[in-house]
């Protein structure tokens, strides 16, 4: 019963959290410089037509009336209309969401598959060249902004070496998208047997996912290293080594299994960071996701996409943190949920 109470309590907190996020997102969109009516009317529109468009969009009404209309639309699944594209924001979001999810999941997998082994190696080979490299990498990964890392990757691998494709989307020129099953090009091309699209989508995904992964690999590496150093000094690990168990079994079995629990706990924060960092990386690599969509809307004060992006990221962070809490319950039986 305590488990069900925990889930119900977390879901109940979803409502006030999303309400607060919707208020903040709405006010920030209203405070941005610019005129959404001018964006929709066009740069050549007359002042009279702009005023008519402003009245038609309801921008001449008080803020509380505009917010009430916005919330009423949300409750009916209406995210508004984009002034830039002239289409419903929900339609634009559903079209671009698979690209963002593909980039986020690929970055998360890369960060785990590269950051966790590096943290283990740094702990096992403490104060060696491997450990020094890991610590320097951790500091550099946190210090360098993602847009700068992305530009360096483009300059080196695309411009200088010519081994990476042009950062112009999810597929190379002349290659059609695979049959839509999940919306993820790498997965859909595998399921449909379209190897040409698979190779192209994988090549296009490599640099942006690595750029985004580096920003979260650094804290994951330091977290695993610190946990492994502490666990390797415990009595049960020393006893296992004294009984003659292989070193790799002690390190990657008993020690890593306990050191990975804080990493699972931090995955919610990591996912939130990846969702926020998507906007920058997608803009650098021309990735057609919701982050790039929100950045373009921000430059034109297109309030609908901006508010929807903030609300969507908040919702995803809450749900992922709930999933992480549930995973911690099964990963560590000592955790009590009440």
Can you put this structure into words, describing what you see?
The chain folds into 2 domains: 35-78, no CATH class; 95-331, MetI-like fold, CATH 1.10.3720.10. The protein has 15 helices and no strands. It is globular and about 85 Å long. With 338 residues, it is mostly helical. It starts with a helix and ends in a 7-residue tail after the last helix. The protein has helices spanning 2-12, 14-31, 36-41, 47-56, 63-75, 89-124, 129-143, 146-160, 185-192, 195-232, 235-242, 247-259, 261-285, 290-299, 303-331. Helix 2 (14-31) runs antiparallel to helix 15 (303-331) and helix 10 (195-232) packs antiparallel against helix 13 (261-285).
- What would you call the shape? globular
The proportion of residues forming helix, as a percent range, comes to: over 70%
Please tell me the overall pLDDT. 80
Biggest β-sheet: count, sense, barrel? none
How many structural units, i.e. domains? 2
- Helix tally? 15
Provide the β-strand percentage band. under 5%
Helix/strand class: mainly alpha
Radius of gyration: 24 Å
- CATH structural architecture of the largest domain: Orthogonal Bundle
C-alpha termini separation: 9 Å
User: What is the element string, with H for helices and E for strands?
Assistant: HHHHHHHHHHHHHHH
What are the low-pLDDT stretches, counting only 5+ consecutive residues below 50? none
Task: Work out the number of β strands.
Answer: 0
Provide the CATH superfamily of the largest domain.
MetI-like
CATH topology of the largest domain: MetI-like fold
């Amino acid at each position: 019963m305590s488990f069900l109470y925990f889930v119900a309590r977390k879901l109940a907190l979803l409502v006030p959290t999303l309400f607060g996020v919707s208020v903040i997102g709405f006010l920030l969109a209203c405070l941005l410089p610019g005129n959404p009516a001018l964006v929709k009317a066009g740069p050549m529109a007359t002042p009279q037509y702009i005023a008519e468009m402003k009245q038609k969009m309801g921008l001449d009404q008080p803020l509380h009336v505009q917010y009430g209309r916005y919330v009423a639309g949300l409750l009916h699944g209406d995210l508004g209309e984009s002034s830039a594209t002239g289409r419903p924001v929900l339609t634009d979001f559903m079209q671009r969401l698979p690209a963002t999810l593909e980039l986020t999941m690929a970055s998360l997998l890369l960060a785990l598959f590269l950051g966790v082994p590096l943290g283990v190696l740094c702990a096992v080979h403490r104060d060696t060249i491997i450990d020094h490299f890991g610590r320097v990498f951790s500091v550099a990964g946190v210090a360098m902004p993602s847009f700068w890392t992305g530009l360096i990757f483009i300059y080196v691998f695309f411009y200088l070496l010519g081994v990476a494709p042009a950062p112009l989307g999810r597929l190379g020129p002349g290659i059609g998208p695979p049959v839509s099953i999940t919306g993820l090009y790498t997965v859909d091309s595998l399921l449909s047997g379209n190897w040409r699209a698979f190779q192209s989508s994988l090549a296009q995904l490599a640099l942006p996912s690595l750029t985004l992964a580096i920003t979260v690999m650094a804290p994951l590496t330091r977290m695993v290293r610190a946990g492994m150093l502490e666990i390797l000094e415990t009595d049960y690990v020393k006893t296992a080594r004294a009984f003659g168990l292989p070193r790799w079994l002690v390190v990657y079995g008993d020690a890593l299994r306990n050191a990975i629990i804080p990493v699972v706990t931090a995955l919610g924060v990591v996912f939130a960071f990846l969702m926020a960092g998507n906007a920058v990386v997608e803009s650098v690599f021309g990735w057609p996701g919701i982050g790039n969509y929100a950045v373009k809307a921000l430059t034109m004060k297109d309030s609908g996409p901006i508010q929807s992006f903030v609300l969507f990221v908040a919702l995803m962070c809450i749900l992922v943190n709930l999933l992480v809490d549930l995973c911690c319950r099964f990963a560590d039986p000592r955790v009590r949920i009440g």
